[in-house]
Task: inverse folding
């Protein structure tokens, strides 16, 4: 038996190489039991690679990790008993019905036939899939498939959950529904590690946010700390007539107390603000007084791109399509 | 905040290899039932082959030993070809499971080591019985008869099951090595398809030209066909005169191949499979 730990997930110096491409350059993680951590990063950052190592699917080239106090390398079976994994591409079995999918997972968790069925029906109910339970999962919509996938990870009530981009490809409503489900799980004490490309999602769900880029942790903290680093909310203004853009930007600067960034092509001015809605109201009155035609004015969160721009000094880049050997620019710091 | 959920008491602690293998095998069988193409390959295709060859080509191909013998000659060959195609059932299933993440899902569960491949093998073995039964029945309908002891007939069916099992491991090898079911299909056409035709499956090897004849004589698909004919009492011993050892001792030669394939391919396949998933 291993000693109880306060961190449900812990990783030290994880390194993973694919040929001469290094996907992880020494990643540390610590997720306290019962909390939610979001791993935020653009395409190719190494999110899936990290999740695969933590869920015993892949062995690191260096570093150690434990899940629920068990070592992912030497105690893989114990780790698997304690985790649920929803992989990036929902891996439900398309040729099995929703119910059969859940029963099969239950049987593979050794629940016994009767209990596996009972648990399957329970989960179908919980995820509003009772009616669809008898249909082949291949005929489900993307949202239903995601829900079934998540239900499948919960069959054995694992204390630690790994969700790899659980809401990618979902419409806003389905996304909000999934968030509610996750809230419920966390309320019941589940430890959750999720990966995402959306800052909004990380903020909404997570106690801690780990930002990774090119296989390195580049920022780490709760969402307030992170926002302080990247500048938090922004006021964004789009004018109808480009000639009025400079005048509008000046008004924006006065209202928000910082110098706006101007993009002439989209007739947009953006400025970070800490006073939120009050600044928005003040700016909108001032713009009206000055007789400026406004196409759009609102508060927004920095996008992932902007977060990366702030943290790394360059935009989040997609991995070149040519594959693992074609990455000339590693971050060298 | 409420406490962490108590560990589920129903979750078993001990490893249950047989149970896990069977659960995954059941899934494989369900897959077969729900994939029309796979089901056709295992049912309609062998029946059609028997009918086609018996009635369409049967008249044109004359086998030494008299009229009516082609159907008897044919059956061993059709059995051998269909069982060889069994490679693809296993290979396609595994390649698909690797590609669509099913293998990863299984591996993230606390199941017994080997249950994924074991389940695949069991499902494909059961699946392999279907064409054997259907071809036998169709053969009987078109006039195929055995002329040997019950023991020899049983031996023939035993040999077919052993060969089916051996082919599964060749399939696992292919399915672990190739990136997708489409790639598996590609190999089918360039490798396995010719292998089943440059053989004594449909015509006696004496009718083949030089090099091809030698190839066909040593081809294990031929030897399975010949072994089955011998065991069913469907062969004309006269045609073996001067033939090399694999032809005159087809049963032994086939057994050697089976043992070789299972003994070499199975461990190799397991190794390559494990390497293919450990990225
Ligand atoms: N099996 C593999 N073989 C070779 N390279 C790989 C393999 N898996 C991942 N990589 C590479 O490792 C890097 C990290 O990939 P990973 O899938 O972890 O990124 P990610 O953050 O999950 O991206 P995404 O948001 O697109 O899912 C990428 O450059 C990727 O090309
Ligand atoms: Mg990923």
Result:
């Amino acid at each position: 038996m291993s000693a109880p730990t306060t961190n449900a997930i812990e990783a030290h110096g994880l390194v993973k190489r694919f040929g001469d491409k290094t996907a992880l350059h020494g990643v540390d993680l610590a997720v306290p039991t019962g909390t939610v951590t979001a791993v935020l990063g653009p395409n190719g950052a190494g999110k899936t690679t990290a999740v695969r190592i933590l869920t015993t699917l892949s062995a690191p080239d260096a570093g150690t990790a434990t899940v629920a106090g068990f070592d992912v390398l030497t105690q893989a079976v114990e780790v698997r008993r304690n985790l649920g994994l929803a992989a990036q591409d929902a891996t439900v079995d398309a040729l099995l019905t929703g119910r059969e999918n859940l029963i099969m997972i239950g049987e593979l968790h050794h629940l016994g036939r009767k209990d596996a069925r009972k648990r399957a029906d329970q989960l179908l109910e919980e995820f509003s899939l009772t009616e669809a339970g008898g249909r082949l999962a291949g005929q489900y919509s993307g949202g239903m498939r995601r829900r079934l996938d998540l239900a499948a990870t919960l069959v054995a009530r694992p204390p630690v959950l790994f969700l790899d981009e659980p809401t990618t490809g979902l419409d806003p409503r389905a996304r909000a529904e999934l968030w509610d489900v996750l809230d419920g799980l966390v309320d019941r004490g589940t430890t959750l590690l999720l990966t995402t490309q959306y800052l909004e999602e990380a903020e909404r769900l997570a106690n801690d946010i780990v930002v990774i880029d090119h296989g390195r942790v580049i920022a780490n903290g709760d969402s307030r700390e992170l926002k302080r680093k990247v500048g938090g909310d922004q006021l964004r203004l789009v004018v109808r007539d480009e000639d009025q853009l400079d005048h509008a930007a000046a008004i924006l600067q006065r209202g928000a107390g910082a110098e706006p960034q101007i993009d002439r092509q989209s007739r947009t001015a953006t400025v970070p603000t800490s006073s939120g809605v009050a600044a928005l109201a003040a700016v909108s009155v001032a713009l009206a007084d000055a007789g400026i035609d406004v196409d759009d004015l609102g508060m927004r969160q920095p996008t992932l791109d902007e977060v990366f721009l702030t943290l790394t000094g360059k935009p989040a880049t997609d991995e070149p399509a040519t594959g693992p050997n074609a990455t000339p620019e590693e971050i060298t710091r | 905040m409420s406490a962490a959920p108590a560990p589920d008491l129903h979750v078993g602690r001990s490893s249950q290899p047989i149970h896990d293998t069977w659960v995954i095998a059941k899934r494989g069988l369900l897959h077969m039932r729900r994939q029309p193409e796979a089901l056709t390959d295992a049912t309609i295709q062998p029946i059609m082959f028997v009918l086609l060859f018996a009635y369409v080509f049967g008249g044109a191909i004359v086998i030494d030993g008299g009229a009516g013998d082609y159907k008897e000659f044919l059956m061993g060959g059709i059995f051998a070809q269909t069982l060889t195609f069994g490679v693809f059932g296993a290979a396609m299933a595994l390649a698909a499971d690797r590609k669509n993440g099913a293998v990863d899902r299984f591996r993230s569960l606390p199941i017994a080591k080997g249950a994924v491949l074991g389940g695949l093998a069991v499902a494909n073995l059961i699946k392999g019985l279907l064409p054997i039964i259907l071809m036998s029945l169709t053969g009987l309908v078109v006039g195929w008869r055995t002329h040997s002891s019950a023991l020899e007939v049983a031996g023939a069916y035993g040999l077919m099951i052993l060969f089916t099992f051996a082919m599964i491991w060749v399939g696992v090898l292919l399915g672990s090595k190739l990136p997708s079911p489409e790639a598996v299909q590609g190999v089918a056409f360039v490798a396995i398809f010719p292998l089943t035709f440059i053989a004594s499956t449909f015509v006696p090897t004496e009718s083949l030209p030089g090099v091809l004849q030698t190839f066909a004589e040593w081809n294990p698909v031929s030897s399975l066909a010949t072994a089955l004919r011998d065991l069913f009492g469907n062969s004309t011993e006269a045609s073996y005169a001067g033939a090399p050892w694999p032809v005159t001792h087809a049963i032994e030669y086939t057994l050697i191949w089976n043992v070789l394939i299972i003994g070499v391919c199975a461990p190799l396949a397991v190794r390559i499979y494990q390497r293919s998933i450990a990225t």
